[in-house]
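Q: Sequence in, structure out?
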Amino acid sequence: MRLTKSTDIALRIVMRLAVVDVRTNPTTREVADAMAVQYTHAAKVVARLQHLGVVEARRGRGGGLALTEAGRSGSIGHLVRELEGNGDVVDCEGEVPCPLSSACRLRRALRQAQEAFYASLDPLSVDDLVAQPTGPVLLSLGLR
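A: Exactly. Output:
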């Protein structure tokens, strides 16, 4: 299974926000620069994370981004499911439906593999992801 670029960016952003001093409230541009992500992509991802209640974004003087408590302690598996959606790994009913769809066992096996992937992420939180040695590396990325 391969995550979308947006999910990858989202996970990197929440990891970065988990290690910055909460008083700094970095901007989307600062986080994007530190994580080597295009600003336009980061802005879209931050909006999605804000909608999911993972990130708080404030405008203006004293504004910036902050990880919410739900974002910090929530399940990574749950977050990835929300970001990726519930689609199947393969599209059996696409523009040209697969001729095996009425008797195929592959679709079910791939769905089980996908659920096993998410299940392995379920017990992890952002705090788990930024534990040693990752946290210090994230802090060294040049944000305030």
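DSSP finds eight helices and two strands in the chain.
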